[in-house]
Amino acid sequence: MNKSIIKKSFQRFLPWFIPCIFLICWQIVSSLGIISERILPAPTEIIQAAIQLISNGELYEHMSISLVRAFIGFVIGGVIGFVLGLLNGVFRFSELLFDTSVQMLRNIPHLALIPLVILWFGIGETSKIFLVALGVLFPVYINTYHGIKSVDKGLIEMGKSYGLKGYKLFFHVILPGALSSILVGIRFSLGVMWLTLIVAETISAQSGIGYMAMNAREFMQMDIIVLSILIYALFGKLSDVIARYFEGRLLKWNA
Amino acid sequence: MENRNGINIQINKLEKVYDNRNVLNGLDVEIKKGEFVSVVGKSGCGKSTLLRLVAGLEDAEGGSIILDGEKLEGLNKKARIMFQDGRLLPWKRIIDNVCIGLSTEKRNKALEALAQVGLEERKDDYPSKLSGGQKQRVALARALVHNPDLLLLDEPLGALDALTRLEMQELIESLWRQKKFTAVLVTHDAEEAVAISDRVLLIDQGKISLDQTISLPRPRKRTNPAFALYVDDILSQIMNRNEDKEYPVLLPELSLSLLDSVNN
User: Fold this and answer.
1) Any idea what the CATH number is for the domain that residue B252 is in?
2) ipTM of the complex
3) If residue A47 lies in a helix (H) or strand (E), which one and from where to where?
4) N or C terminus: which one in chain A shows less Cβ crowding within 10 Å?
């Protein structure tokens, strides 16, 4: 029994082994002066910068505005993509009407629209949210649509022959059948969400983590630049954990 | 007292075409109320197609299916079908699978049905935790909870191992005797057909080419020589082996005399 506890804690620690070693080496190399502070500041300096930014409230302000943008953009894009995917997956008419157009739009890199979006919406909130929503929309759409299209026809036939139709057929058979694909789309779109937000904030913003990094560049504050990058990594990991949690909850029958 | 359950099926000149091929070509047959009929034939002979047409899952190109005097249009609401691959919803617990299409107040009926197939203890498991045979039992419970007049079985035991299969055959037979519905079983197994049914129909070239009543007492013993004769005869009919028509003509008398000898 003791052995299994050791084994478990070992398995918990193992994923963090490489990040820890990396940090230690980084600190050593920086302290010895092998890498100059102007190229890459030491972890301790980054922690100091973080403490300073936390204490004067700046970090909180930038982080919350970034999170709000990410969240609103994600919800708008996700809902549109989901609804469109549902409609086109379920109704032939809607599929014929919309799918071709969506596929054409999908193939435009949405970040290429930044110049246009700035001219349309300026550098206010709308432009960032618009870009995030656009980026999130397509992965959610594709996976919802595909998920519904690939629900086992045998199960649908069974449902119909057992008297399910309309919304009952949809909620008992079609939606649960498409769910794992939909969740893949959501997880993928979370990645797109952060990517879009970083780029958008870096190019055109007056607040947010991306802005914080760009602003720090003007004053050569390397520690803040690296801190911003680390925060993005942390956010990315966090959204992945949340997505995994929901997958585990919603797909527990799959285990 | 007349059976409340069960249904009479009259099939007239049924035609079904797939890819320019006449799968069913003017098929006529009548199945009586409460009868257990098996349909056998080579694979691709149209036996499953016949079942799907009776279930109303597909439309025929011609002919008609009359249920208790009423022509079947669209889905057959008096029938429940059991598929070869079970088709349980993997995201629903066993009890909820049995409840499909059932109003919520009838949930205890679903429990009853699960008990009848001996799986009430597994009600809160997901289908992925069950064996193939257990899944088919759940599918059977799901079909029977609606008290159908007609149970359609589309090779439901085809994928099971021999032992589980025997168990399932006995279970289906006993539930049929209890509930007195009409049953149509599609199978590729002549022995299964003889073991369980009142009549065996053979489909060949889109028509019924053999309509054999099985006059063996129930419960049937596979060791009965007459049983083996029936199986052998049906098999050779399926394979078109009997050019000399002697054997099948002899069979009824032969089997009866054999029966007598067994019973004595």
Assistant:
1) 3.40.50.300
2) 0.81
3) helix A43-55
4) N
Contact list in A for residue B75 (CB cut-off 8 A) is 160-161
Test mutation, B51, B91, B126, B144, chain A, max A CBs within 10 A? B91
- Shared domain for B187 and B239, answered yes or no, is yes
Collapsed DSSP state (helix, strand, coil) of residue A243: helix
A118-121 CB contacts, 8 Å cutoff, 24+ apart: A118/A203, A118/A204
Rounded to an integer, the average pLDDT of B161-169 is: 88
| Contact residues on chain B for A175, CB-CB shorter than 8 A | none
Q: What percent of chain B has pLDDT over 90?
A: 38
Q: Supply the pLDDT for residue B238.
A: 86
The predicted structure's pLDDT at residue A52: 92
B64 and B193 together in one domain: yes
pTM of the model as a whole: 0.80
What's the sign of the alpha-carbon dihedral B97, B100, B103, B108?
negative
Strand B36-40 vs strand B62-67: parallel, antiparallel, or unpaired?
A: unpaired
- Give the other-Cβ count within 10 Å of B129's Cβ: 14
Q: Are residues B71 and B169 in the same domain?
A: yes
Q: Are residues B67 and B159 in the same domain?
A: yes
Q: Do B200 and B132 sit in the same domain of this protein?
A: no
Contacts of A159 in chain B (CB under 8 A): 100-101
Q: Same domain, yes or no, for B183 and B128?
A: no
Q: Which residue range forms the structural domain that includes residue B99?
A: 91-147
Cβ neighbours of A154 in B, within 8 Å: 83, 85, 87
Domain A76-198: which topology?
MetI-like fold (1.10.3720)
Nearest to B85 among A154, A159, A179 (CB): A154
- Mean pLDDT (chain A) is 90
User: Order of strands, edge to edge, in the sheet holding B79-82?
Assistant: B79-82, B150-154, B182-186, B36-40, B199-204, B207-213
Angle in degrees, CA B49, B53, B54, rounded to 5: 120
pLDDT digits (tens, 9 = 90+) for A107-134: 899 888 888 998 998 878 899 999 999 9
Binary contact (B57, A255; C-beta < 8 A):
no
Domains of chain B: total? 2
pLDDT at position A10? 87
- Residue B245 domain-assigned (yes or no): yes
Same domain? For B200 and B136 the reply is no
Q: Is residue B216 in a domain?
A: yes
Say whether both B59 and B97 belong to one domain. no
Residue A181 has pLDDT above 90, yes or no: yes
Cβ under 8 Å to A: B residues 138-157: 142, 146
Indicate yes or no: CB of A157 within 8 angstroms of CB of B128: no
